[in-house]
Specification:
Four copies of one chain form a homotetramer.
Chain A: E1 3-8, H1 12-22, E2 27-33, H2 41-46, E3 51-53, H3 57-60, E4 67-70, H4 74-86, E5 90-93, H5 101-114, E6 118-120, H6 128-138, E7 145-153, H7 160-165, H8 169-185, E8 189-197, H9 202-206, E9 212-219, E10 224-230, E11 238-245, E12 248-252, E13 261-264, E14 268-270, H10 277-280, H11 282-297, H12 306-325, E15 329-330, H13 337-341
Parallel strand pairs in A: 1-2, 1-4, 2-3, 4-5, 5-6, 7-10
Antiparallel strand pairs in A: 7-11, 8-9, 8-15, 9-10, 11-12, 13-14
């Protein structure tokens, strides 16, 4: 069986998905849409892409297309999800699903009604380090989880333009960590308290955002958690976590380009962490796409559902509200919550 | 020049101070007082201690005594400090100075009026790992500090009797971390938000305390921090910290008994952390006593003053209040604060 | 420009090369020959391979073929190299080139006369860890190299049948380390002293081979070296090296599946090394093939020449002689040697 | 019970033993002899040493003295051992016992006839790391040992004067490693092949010695080993070992002043190894003296006997001969050997 795929939005991440999809024998990347296709012709030719269009409806209207990857700007996601669902396409959508919980909910409703698959691009769930920690937790190796700590620092902030349209640190960057928190702990977040600061660049503050945050979490199972974020780590992309339980602890460290250690009269050095997400999550991007393809071909559950996307957004909004009010913010447990998260 | 020292309270920590003092050439440990001296006779003889008494006033009234170490229960500290100050003795006092900020303040006042030295036993300041991180921060190696993370987990909880009289987790255990936070960051804590839980042992909850905590901090210099505590880590005493700044990060890991790594078909293992504070801070206990002796003999400032003790207590009280109210608690900056902390 | 490639011998390594070649845009894997093609039909179809033959001459006689990969048994290498050179094909040949230095020399002569490229499959040269150490040495970071230590242990021995036809430990397994020694040190080996033992499996001894070895080396530049081999490490594939010079040392450690560390009451564990060469050298196999393709397409020097293959074999033979005689064995410097190795 | 001790030779190591002995309650360091006592008066007074003499016979003739520490130059060791044994004193002697196997043998004979204890100062046996590896081997955790690797590099060479009278690298420096090899493997060395070079300082070569060595070993139990030495490691004192067996491997790494790791835009650094033997083996020096005192007081076997000293010297001599002849040198198994080593 073969799957025909269309890509909506051929920016950096869309292009990565194309190459990862092409390496899968059962996949044919037939179509790509983008607002600016002028510079994409050669790239598309080299990859035997048959349809290159500025209008994503060309993809949705193509009855040969089985699945679409939505890699366009966030403010277009929920609309395209609804249209794609209506057209009966399976959907892989980059995170976040939308900037507004209500938008996300209505998109998920459309997906549910259409009975198509929807996977949200929380690529870090596929990172070998984090996956291993999750497995250790699920196997009970560290016992009942008591606390979780996530460190997530970018090597440098995005452009101010991007920041202004990103939905803010919590919605753009921490959303990955909110999803990771649920994924590792296997429990919903029920309270958020956020401290934020502008320490990296005052222009980020001028743009109405923060660049540094420490966010305290309470989980439905009684455990506690904390997420630490910075928009700029001088030494590179810092992606670690540690979960502590009554039988022990498991921690995931950064990946490095080599294992080489150098000792001189000045110091003993090892490699810095891999620079950024493209280097750190190369394999995770491959694995998430493989997982989606398998879920569609074998009619299995996706690893990272629309509901997961929704819950992460809800936590992000709570964090935002906590930052604004200076007080902790409670989250209601959805009836699906604890069942869905396991 | 020689210093004659008396020890008030010969429990576990009092005895350790005696042995560490005896190894210093300029020191004569002349007297020891304890409520129960029956079992101490042989111990005292082996150490050439001349006076063994149940009445600590015998020590304060001995004009030959230059300095006293107060290692009695916390609820006696402030009273003995005042009496010792009045008697003109230099004072080393175990932490905390008292359970009530007002008590501590009045003790400090007595010390100030008497013009004697007072060092508070925040032994962790002398740990080589943490000292090194502090130096790196002060030398600007990691730039302006943005965030601080302290992990502090005991290998097992104290007895329930101890917990009931300990002043609670924040006053008994986290107080070390509150002091460490000020010490590393070189800035006062101005806001505390505490999450706590009873996850280790429900009897601790029945005793009115918590055993697990994540505490968010804001510093006067704008930086953020977080402290993570547990009363029981299955793998031993876990004492780490990491400070992150605009030029990089420095982290201190646990100490282990050996560097040996073993690889078998089952796994690759290294040593667990040293079991508890007596193993981990053996050298720190030696160094803090040496520092106090030097401060007295050479009339220098102590490394860890009564004011430091007071500030840690104030943060502990704020944390307690935050836990009770579920809201962040602000701390007023004392006029001495930022000057004193540098 | 496009390169048409034929594969001679489609065993495990031949198949890996096919998949790695297919991922390169400029490459068309047109033909595969193998003595047993019955079971290869489906595999070949899935990969759009046009010619599947039992007769490798079909590939050499195909004028469309630009380059061949020789992945057949070692005892066929030199003959096929000569024929392929005569046919004007560029050649990638698995190590070793042959079991006899004279055979290798005559094959290299044919290659030289034909003016084709020949790259020998010392894949470890492309491992990121070892490559990094080589660069550090070449950049002078560790100063003048004084000593080199290579640890090379397999997770389990090959079959006895394989051992009997392998040419022995030095020719089959250590040959990679002999090449690595030259590669890292940038100098020829001029003396070998080999200690060997049968400690893993007496049947290996019955087959006339050893399974454990420590080999002392002297280099032309005056440095010393040592290689340690075992056919079976209980914990997996152990591939490390350390070079020590007057300004410091650089060491390359094993790769592991994840960075996860687990602490329990029993122990602190991390992952074992990746199991074997297919896992450890996945990327190195990709990189060596890319390098060969680039060398052919851009008419550049190969990274790992026939001369490198010859020198490694000469050291292996010297080691064998040392083991037999119990005495160190000298190697004459070839006039090409020191020039070629840089 | 109390032990009266005399120290013969109050150089650097003699003074260290004095301080370590004084910390043991049962010990009275009564007498010290040295050829130059002029500068030692104050040092001796501070330590309540009663007898300070230029004539070590004053110590041997003092009937109150129970045990002596021989810390004088190596060429005086065997003579003083004999005289001390004749005087009925227990003996702690620095390594090596002598420069000539025959001298050592005659000294050991005197000790045996007198029935006194003799411990040789192989302090590294007491290092926590190496001790742990030995225990792991003895407990069978790594199975039957197959290979041993010892890395032993000094941070800087001794003075040329010292080198000229030291007996050469193997007798002065590697002798510790020869002893360690026997200690870890629990088996005698039966063959030595030594490669040596002058790479650190040509003046060391002019003085007739080498400064770099790789020494291959065969053990009586069939295992293989290798020792790597350098007189100068730019990054400090490098003292590691790894033993590999059929069930796994155990390795001991260097000790460092702190666990602190610093990440900046330039690199990730950790501490260099502790600078030299006084820092690395501080605790081992304390432990070896405690062990000797216990052996005398409780009439137990010493951990490190005269026979151990003799065997290490025999290996050193064999290594020297191997270096001179360029061939491996066999060592006869003494009848005591395998029994004694367990």
């Amino acid at each position: 069986m073969r799957l025909n795929v269309g890509i909506i939005g051929a920016g950096r991440i869309g292009k990565i998905h194309v190459d990862n999809l092409r390496a899968i024998p059962q996949i044919r990347v037939k179509s790509v849409s983008d607002v600016a296709i002028g510079s994409l012709q050669e790239w598309a030719n080299e990859r035997q892409i048959e349809v290159l269009t500025t209008n994503y409806s060309d993809i949705l209207n193509d009855t040969e297309i089985d699945a679409v990857f939505i890699c366009s700007p966030t403010n277009t996601h929920s609309r395209i999800i609804k249209e794609a669902a209506l057209a009966g396409k399976h959907i892989f959508c980059e995170k976040p699903v939308s900037f507004a919980v209500e938008d996300t909910k209505s998109a998920l409703q459309a997906v549910e009604q259409a009975g198509v698959k929807l996977q949200v691009g929380f690529n870090r769930r596929f990172d070998a380090n984090f996956l291993k920690v999750r497995q250790l937790v699920q196997e009970g190796i560290i016992g009942t989880p008591h606390t979780l700590r996530i460190t997530s620092r970018d090597p440098e902030p995005p452009s101010l333009e991007y920041i202004q349209s990103s939905g803010g640190l919590f919605m753009d960057m921490t959303i990955h960590d909110f999803d990771m928190a649920r994924y590792i702990m296997g429990s919903e977040v029920v309270e958020v308290f956020a401290n934020g600061a502008v320490l990296v660049d005052p222009l980020i503050g001028d743009a109405g955002d923060i660049d540094t945050a420490i966010i305290s979490l309470k989980f439905a199972n009684g455990a506690l958690g904390v997420i630490e974020n910075s928009r700029r780590a001088a030494y590179g992309y810092d992606q670690r976590l540690e979960v502590f339980g009554d039988k022990g602890a498991a921690k995931a460290d950064n990946n490095r380009a080599t294992t080489v250690e150098v000792s001189t009269s000045a110091h003993v050095t090892k490699e810095k962490p891999l620079y950024f997400f493209l280097e750190r999550y190369t394999q995770a991007y491959i694995d998430e796409v493989n997982q989606f393809v398998r879920a569609v071909l074998e009619n299995q559950q996706v690893c990272c559902s629309g509901f997961d996307g929704l819950q992460a957004e809800r936590i992000a909004q709570a964090a935002k509200k906590s930052l604004e009010t200076g007080a902790p913010v409670q989250l209601q447990l959805n009836e699906k919550s604890e069942a869905a998260i396991k």
